[in-house]
Amino acid sequence: MSPIVPNFRKASREAVRNSQVIAAVRKTANLLSGMMALAVANTPDFEALRNYGRTRKLEISGDLEKYAQSFAANAQAAGAVVHRAKDAAEAARLAIKIAADNGAKTAVKGKSMTAEEVELNEALEAAGVTVTETDLGEFIIQLANEKPSHIMAPAIHRSRAQVAELFTDRLGTPPDLSVEALVAAARKELREKFLAADMGITGGNFAIADTGAIVLLSNEGNIRMATTLPRIQLAVVGIDKIIPEMADMPKFLALLARSAAGQTISSYLSIVTGPRRAGEEEGPEQLHIILLDNGRSRIAKGPYREILHCLHCGACLSHCPVYRAVGGHAYQAVYPGPMGSVLSPLISGLEIYADLPNACTLCGRCAEVCPVCVPLPDYLRDLRSDVNKPPLMMKMAAFGAHTPSLYRLGMIAMRQMLKKGVKGLMAPALKEWTVCREPPEPQAGESFRDWWKTRSHGQ
Amino acid sequence: MILNQYLAKAQGVGVHVELLSLSDLNRRLAALVGELKAKSVALPLIGWPEPLLRTVKTEVEKCGSATVSPRRRMDGGYEWNRPALGSANLGITFCGAFIAETGSLAFPSGPGLGTLASLLPETHLALSCAKDCRPDLGGYLAEFGADIPSRLTFVTGPSRTGDIEASMTTCVHGPGRVLHWIITGDFS
Ligand code: SF4
Fold first, then answer.
1. Which pLDDT score is estimated for A425?
2. Rounded distance, CA A218 to CA A196, Å?
3. What is the pTM of this model?
4. Which residue, A46, A174, B138, B148, shows the most beta carbons closer than 10 Å to its own?
5. What is the CA radius of gyration of chain A?
6. What's the gap in Å between A315 CA and the centre of ligand 1?
7. What is the ipTM of this complex?
8. Mapping DSSP to helix (H, G, I), strand (E, B) and coil, where does residue A336 land?
């Protein structure tokens, strides 16, 4: 675990002032949400697909262990070695052991938020394995020694100029390169790593129970390289990624590709079923799959079960007014944005991420765009009541509102206070509320109750 | 007509797709190899309709390019000469199934089938027979039943990224240019 105690309030206050980051986040988030809207508009049966996705996911999250066992059995039958990890630490230990057992010193890695959750790079590096991120966005932030700030577009917070500067600094490229030239520089740099690596590390977008296959999407081709060239392949997959049958896959893929980047399908789709087979000239000699639980079975049994339906498309991040205002790093969590504000506290503990359920205006856009209808605003609201035992003042207010005579007294006091302005004794008590808003104008003339009284007397 | 749906989809994702007859193939190949100044061409040899492979191999060699193919080992398996493969400028593969719904080329793995030829070179040319167009991904996957290959790869357009300011840029790790020539007429 990171030693920093997350403090969203403080971090977000600093983040909103970083206009460069916010401009970069907005630009990309706007483009992504525009592409998604277009792709959804061009899919006449998208609502039906969403409903299918949600219904199917409810079946899965209702019986996670059954699907996990069936996936594991079928993947083993296809020749993969399946490891179950109950938490992040166990997953990291397993990965280190797999590398050590096979004398793997270098690894090329595809983007995987599950690996971030496990802090896999740190663990492997500490054990002497050099891990190179190969997704361009991940490669950029690895060079910059940063964490991803979006689950689909990890370097969303960096502008082209900043990437150019970073490449000049770290790779010795000429200054101020165009996007095309930056991409070409990364291709050259990473091609050698791919050809030399002992181990390829990936996540998995889906794991298919009835065949034991791992399904991986990528636009760049780095996933194809990592699953084809190195002699050892390791896939770290959360048990929430399991879907029952191969026949489900095209539908979930359709939901994911549209919501993530406005595509019908990604440039590359790799369905990996076991390691290289006899006579084949490509593919790893060993395929290891670490099935990560890390709280997922527990979450499946609780009131926030549907967060496990998340396809990690990133749409709720790009559409969230809070995410767009503060960027991903302010959340100080592996998973930022609306899905992260639910998932991060559930995985790591509400006491650590108590602020995150409040990082939400309850505007509801996330639930509107979510391809599997995760009720994110409801969950965020419920998590708030899990965090906040109602403070004394709120309890008193509730009692007052239930007692007509007290309510009347309270309203008289409130009117007096508003007329005089919020100062004196009440000012510190209301500070949280008034720090970023003006108190309401006091109502002119008589109160509603007084008016009502005269009105009924008049009749 | 699903072939038309495929053509529209594939063009939409940036594939240079053409319909041509077997007799046009020599001329088109010579032009492509010449344009790319391709010194070496990655060419898996398994799974092709015989006349198609013969035409391709002969024409590429006639252009003065070397071909790199998976070699047959003593034990019957295949292996790539990886350094040679890494320096190929063009990969030519046979694509036995392409998907109208998504505009995708399908490449199941198998001995000698070599999917790296469609990944490492900067240009990838896939050749198909018009009859091999499939309506959708689900139907194609169902054809395998329980017998799924170890790697099933779908290629939909060039390698691309939007990771820098969401500006779409091609040729990240895989080919920046994907051509798909669909051979019409019955020849296999
Ligand atoms: S919660 Fe829904 S919208 Fe957000 S990342 Fe997950 S699937 Fe996408």
1. 62
2. 21
3. 0.91
4. B148
5. 26
6. 6
7. 0.96
8. coil
